[in-house]
Amino acid sequence: MQEHIGEGPYSLLKKDPTPTLPSKLDRVLKKLLNDKKISKAFYDQARNLHPRAPQMYGTPKIHKKGIPIRPIVSFYNTPLIALHKVLAHYLKPLTCSPPRLRDSRHFLECLRSASPDTYTYPCSLDVKALYTSCDMTLARISVRSKFLAQPDLLPANISPSAMDTLIEFCLSNSYFEYDNCFYAQNKGGPMGSPLTVELAEIRVAEVETLALNTSPDPPSLYMHFVDDGFGKFRDRNHAETYLEFVNSLSTDLTYTLEHPRADGSLPFFDVLLHRDLSTSVYRKPTHTDKYTHYTTAAPQNTKDALIRSLTRRAYCICSSQHLPNELSHIKQVLLDNGYPLARIHLIMQRTIKSASTAKSPQSRPQITPMHASPSTPQSPSPYKPSPNVIKSSLHLTPTSPFETCSPGPKLLLKKKKVPTATLR
């Protein structure tokens, strides 16, 4: 960690900014409130009255050569965490183009719904050190221009200039504590901040949209998730030419290219795409297949949920020719972790039966192919106020039959009359 901090875009601070930062933020918010650029609700939601300093820690990337460190800053209960959450909520609609993937299931739906063409060479693009290399100033300028061009993306009582002022305030007061020393981050943004995620996504979307719209020979299909992109190209030379073109458009983001393996397969998310466009579950070489052992003191529903989740993932990702091998692998892994064979068979059969019902044509949603076509850009949707979206830290809505839980019928219990004793 000390080596990373010494080589990274950080500078040592003389003292802890935490005691003075809340009052500094309050003065900025009060000025915006008095100028009627933010609402009273925004003012209340953006403050954290009893904060602590952000803490940096590192996790080793054991699947990469040299085992580099992934620096993460814990923003829990920090001076600006409330403001970061509020700003990230309003920036979310700006990160919808090019196609932003939700998960591996969404990736497979887009891939399978794409029309067949001669672009049969899949590649994945990766941004090198996204959060520490991304120019957040350019992202902030992009945010300001989009809000000015489409004012309906913000509520009427919040001005684009106020958003720009608060984003700049957050970026200029980015700091963390490590080993009892305090450091300021001079470039990029800290991993762990919800605001950093949205700003980096906006910057990546801006560069990739520009590349798709101006490239003389773009891929036939392109979609991305945070710093990973997936595209369909004609051949290896086409992919490398497009990589050079993308890297020529920005000075802060550097893309790398991952080609298919010798057998024609390419991993993306937890999906392994084969040469014949069939799919199976992908596990990194460092994966150990170690899960919660059956003899541990965990609740039974937690152990059953492990069997369901592994089976459901196999059924959603694997093509028909790869599904039997994946189910056999799951069964053997669960046996190695102490799970009874009868319990494995019972939960797997129930899950497969439920998955088969969910995949019927009547219940399967229609997916629109997401192609890299300059003539049909995706525009962000207007802001729709939701009163509970910021106050509640997490609100989940069921998106599939597996996640829907309906309460059972209520039992009405009749009170029994207790016979009274008669004194004689």
Short précis:
This protein is an alpha+beta fold. 38% of the residues lie in helices and 13% in strands.
Largest sheet: 4 strands, antiparallel
Q: Bin the strand percentage.
A: 5-15%
- Please report the number of helical segments: 13
Radius of gyration computed on alpha carbons: 26 Å
Strand order of the largest sheet: 7-8-4-9
The overall pLDDT average reads 83
Coarse structural class = alpha+beta
Distance between the termini: 87 Å
Order of helices and strands: HEHHEEHHEHHHEEHEEHEEEEHHH
Overall geometric form? globular
Percent helix range: 25-40%
Please explain how this structure is put together:
This protein has 424 residues and is an alpha+beta fold. Helix content is 38%, strand content 13%. The strands form four sheets. Strands 7-8-4-9 form a four-stranded antiparallel β-sheet, covered by helices on one side. It has a three-stranded antiparallel β-sheet with strand order 1-6-5. Strands 10-11-12 form a three-stranded antiparallel β-sheet, covered by helices on one side. A hairpin with an 8-residue loop joins strand 2 and strand 3. Helix 11 packs across helix 13. The C terminus is likely disordered.
Record the SSE blueprint.
Blueprint lengths: L1 H6 L2 E3 L8 H14 L5 H6 L9 E6 L8 E6 L6 H11 L12 H10 L7 E7 L2 H4 L2 H14 L10 H13 L2 E4 L2 E5 L8 H21 L6 E5 L2 E6 L2 H12 L7 E4 L7 E3 L2 E3 L5 E3 L18 H18 L5 H14 L4 H18 L66
Antiparallel strand pairs: 1-6, 2-3, 4-8, 4-9, 5-6, 7-8, 10-11, 11-12
Helix pairs in contact: 4-9, 7-8, 7-9, 11-12, 11-13
